[in-house]
Design brief:
The structure holds two protein chains of two kinds.
Chain A lengths: L1 E5 L2 E3 L5 E2 L6 E2 L5 E3 L1 H17 L2 E7 L5 H10 L3 E5 L9 H15 L4 E5 L10 H9 L3 E11 L3 E8 L2 E8 L2 E5 L11 H8 L5 E4 L18 E7 L8 E2 L4 H14 L4
Parallel strand pairs in A: 1-6, 1-8, 6-7, 7-13, 8-12, 9-12
Antiparallel strand pairs in A: 2-5, 3-4, 9-10, 10-11
Chain B lengths: L2 E3 L9 H5 L5 E4 L2 E4 L18 E3 L15 E5 L1 E2 L2 E2 L1 H17 L3 E7 L6 H6 L4 E6 L8 H15 L3 E5 L2 H14 L3 E5 L1 E4 L6 E7 L4 E7 L5 E5 L15 E4 L6 H4 L1 E8 L12 E5 L8 H11 L3 E4 L1 H5 L20 E5 L5 H7 L4 E6 L12 E4 L2 H16 L1
Helix pairs in contact in B: 4-5, 7-10
The chains are: A alpha/beta, B alpha/beta.
Bound molecules: flavin-adenine dinucleotide (2 copies).
Amino acid sequence: MNIIVLLKQVPNTTEVKLDPKTGNLIREGIESIVNPDDLHAIEAAVALKEKDGAKITALSMGPPQAIDALSEAMGMGVDESILLSDKAFAGADTWATSFTLGKAIEKIGEFDLILCGRQAIDGDTAQIGPQVAECLGIPQVSYVFEIEEIEKNGIIVKRRIEEGFERIRTSMPALLTVIGEMNTPRYPVVSNLLDACREKAPIKVWNAADIGVTTSEVGLEGSFTNVIKTFAPKSGRAGEVLEGDTKTQVKTLIGKLKENLLV
Amino acid sequence: MTIWIDIDLCNGCKRCLKECPYDAIEMKGDKAYILDRCTSCGACLSSCKQKAIGTDAEPKEIPDFNDRQGVWVFAEQKEGKLNPVSLELLGIARALADELGQDVSALLLGEQVSDMSEVLIHHGANSVYLAEHKTLKDYRTIAYTKVIEDLVMSYKPGILLMGATHNGRDLAPRVARRVGSGLTADCTELSIDPEDGVLLQTRPAFGGNVMATIANRYSRPQMATVRPGIMEALKKSDRKGSVIKHEVSLLEKEIGTEILGTVTEKRKSVDITKARVLVAGGRGVGNEEGFKVLKDLAAVMNGEVAGTRVTVEEGWIPAEHQVGQTGQSVRPEIYIACGISGAIQHRAGMMNSRYIIAINKDPLAPIFQVADWSIVGDLREVVPELISQLTAHSA
Ligand SMILES: Cc1cc2nc3c(=O)[nH]c(=O)nc-3n(C[C@H](O)[C@H](O)[C@H](O)COP(=O)(O)OP(=O)(O)OC[C@H]3O[C@@H](n4cnc5c(N)ncnc54)[C@H](O)[C@@H]3O)c2cc1C
Ligand SMILES: Cc1cc2nc3c(=O)[nH]c(=O)nc-3n(C[C@H](O)[C@H](O)[C@H](O)COP(=O)(O)OP(=O)(O)OC[C@H]3O[C@@H](n4cnc5c(N)ncnc54)[C@H](O)[C@@H]3O)c2cc1C
């Protein structure tokens, strides 16, 4: 079986702190990590490989330093990696990103299963999985937390929904987006990591020409949506600090609640 | 694409610094410089009044979309029950459509679901596109995508909204790609740009640390998924509307997926999203025992208890009480945060409460930034005092 894993390098947003004086984000010194959901996708792929045998290719679009994320994936048991890197890819929305990834997957050629994370912790859209599946014209199952069985031409999975889960059979090839509940990702093995850093490591770098796309189809130019403004979340609350000892504070509070007809 | 700053034109106004989601622009002296962290996302481009920010991206022409009219809402239903987000979407769609002077339509897909049409009309739809077919009984990606594609291609709406539910976030990206349009995820605010009538879509990103406003100027319909629990549904009225039946011809073999079964996991005994008052506890509550007094307060105020992820992980309260990014989004009349620091992932779930009261012994706790009334103090004193004064008050 041929498995492709999509992975994204992201800033570790859980380390983001607010500057108490200015209310701005402090981003200095934030490390880049493999998107957390993607670690679960890699783990799922490696588990399938250990069970039935498979060849795993990891694919990531990003700046040159995203090679670190691919090396980590190789450390976990991925066989081959491809980094899509080109200035032309920058500024892509999910339309352009999924198109670019789709073109690269067509170039890779054979695959039975594509695994990706449900959501990246920076862009947070959860749109890439379904849109890559649409580009390739294959079915998708999102929010997968268990692969039950691989059949001859299909696969049975469990999909998380708000009130429980669905058991779904999908034909193959198919794309699955996975959530953290799926498994516990293993740590990369040091010797694998070292191999991934070698000169002849099986990590290829492809640019726009390699996958046969033009600048106007990818990156900012190939996008429909644009971020036109960003800002720190504001609360717009009264923010009144109630003074005095506990009794007085509580008394004032109840006064406020009464004033606003809340009690 | 590359982005650069023409230093001679830069007047040091710092507008671009604020726009950059990656914090990749820095002042050196009185000029702005782009750092290595820049991902060329383009968010800064329109901020520069001096036109000092340059790019090699070709400017794109904005097509004429005059024939794209109407605000559409995907009415999500399951087994004949409408998902509450469907009515919330109609509420915001109505406001947007009124501003544009256009109509609101709801898309209702399923098997034998026609009786829900009236509810949709009563809550703001001018018309309902009804697609009934046995292959549409349960939500399945490819089947629903195909039907919505047909409808969009036939009737050419200007805006299409879906709930950011599990199914909505599965369906919307697929439909967007199919009909050739952009999509904004998980919006918490939608409005119309008074200048050019474009939909301004605001959403949290970076785990809620950044808010981004996104516009789709180059494709139609303008599509967005909208976070449940944020928009307000309209009160039911006796509004009239039309139902337009859409013929469906779908074959089982085109769909690719088959639902073998649906398992409902232990019904949640409480639904904190419906409570008028929520008394929420954090690590500061200390232990399971500590939640007792919070429950007493909730009882006095006719409310429910809730908690942070920490309290759920510690096993002090069950998971269905968790508020936040990975828990529930709540919007009660009163939210009382006791011993909660106010991490961004927690705030994401409670920021839209009508009134927020925060009790925390640390005056610098971020929760105070979102509170209407703040009490700096020990919750073990404040909460019992609150109970006793409230009981005295109602006696
Ligand atoms: C503040 C901000 C807000 C944005 N909002 C939107 C928006 O609303 N709509 C929109 O279209 N674009 C938006 N974008 C752009 C979007 O982040 C990019 O298109 C990004 O490349 C992919 O989206 P994501 O990070 O949300 O990925 P998700 O769709 O959340 O990622 C899901 C999975 O897809 C795979 N994947 C994602 N990116 C890559 C990659 N580069 N290489 C390999 N695999 C990948 C991973 O397996 C990942 O777990 C926004 C960007 C910013 C900075
Ligand atoms: C991907 C991700 C998703 C997450 N999702 C969620 C989510 O859905 N919901 C969520 O809540 N969290 C979530 N978190 C966790 C979140 O980042 C915080 O860790 C968590 O909200 C902190 O919980 P807390 O406020 O209870 O604890 P702490 O941050 O430890 O705060 C305890 C507070 O109690 C105060 N305190 C202590 N004793 C007293 C006392 N006697 N009287 C008064 N005050 C006292 C302290 O001053 C402190 O401010 C998520 C994190 C990640 C990375």
